[in-house]
Predict the structure.
Amino acid sequence: MEETLKILVVNDDEVDRIAVSLALNKAEINIELHKVSEINKALTVLKNTTFDCVLFDNYLPDQDGLNSIYKLRSSEIKVPVVILLDQGNEQIAVELIKAGATDYILKSKLSSEILAQTLRNAIRLYRVEMEAALANQKLKESYEQLLHKNQELERQRQQIQLQNLKLLEASRLKSQFLATISHELRTPMNAIIGFSQMLLRPKFAQLTNQQADMVERILNNGKHLLMLLNEVLDFSKLESGTLDLKPEIFDLSKIVNKTVEEIRSLAEAKKLSLVVKTDLQNTLVFNDPVRVHQIVINLLSNAVKFTENGGIWVEVAETPNNSVTISIRDTGIGISAGDFENIFEAFRQIDQGISRKYPGTGLGLAITDSLVQMMGGEIFLESQLEVGSIFRIELPRQVILAPRLADSSSLNFGGNSLYLSHNNNPQFPSNFSKYSLGYPYLKP
């Protein structure tokens, strides 16, 4: 069913109004026709009633067509407008369209067909324009919302950036504090160790067995505390980027054997076997012997600490890419798959409780990982709970010193890629799952 159109005719000429009414009736359009004779009356009616279209005569008693359009639009009344023009006024039609009229009809050509078509086109065009205006309004609102969100995101980004700067400053101050306090504590600790060693010498003091046992305990605990202080100091240097390698040519097999002998007494105290195997055609390497020793001592100490039965095997071997590998295998408690990503993080231990069975700072593996990275090497881990672990270090024969990093926050203490494969090592069961953690060299 065709909709009923509400049409307002604004014309003071009764003949024109009758002609329009007849044309509309012949056009078979469902209309509700309203008539007024002046623009001011039309404005009053339009403010109170909604119409589908308005037919304006170009010449009204109080306004001409152009001023009528201006007055209508200035009143913010939105309705399609069709102007009735006399013959010869076609040039005025252009000005009327520019002012806001939708269309025009020449009175001399007024017919039911032309009137019906013009009204339908005007109403259709007006509705399209209104839909476009509504879409533009929604688009404008969306743009304003997006602009507001962007401003909010920028504000949040600035807050995050400021927070990051504060965190970097806090990290710098923490590293500085750790370095300072570790350095300051080392001096009295060295004095305690030195005097304890003097007291244990027969020519300096004649101690009873009980007194000698107490002094020896002081000495051992002092050495242990000094080792912990050294770990904290090394960590602070690594974190701040101030630790430098001092490479030289040395015999790798001698360093490994010397380190093993330092640990052997601890292994024997727990009745653990400790076997070393070296398979190098050329035992000379160019690296920092002190730091290589530190890497091996950290891994061996962990192997002894976390192994209660069985043994520990150390193997040094060649690799095809002009590198050497140092592998340390134990039959200790092993590491669960869930802890693989965190095992190399600073201050992270598997047992985080205060009353944990295995003491330590949790810095050994973090320092080891960072030193291996500095040397351009990689560290790989294989482990299974209640079966044991293998730490394999691959180092280039000739270390290349990289420029010191300007931003200490770039140092990475912790996991990179984690992948799962099957273990083909005959020393472990065939169902032993192998997780390998690769740590690529941190390039400038």
About this structure: The radius of gyration is 46 Å. The chain has three domains: 5-110, 165-240, 248-438.
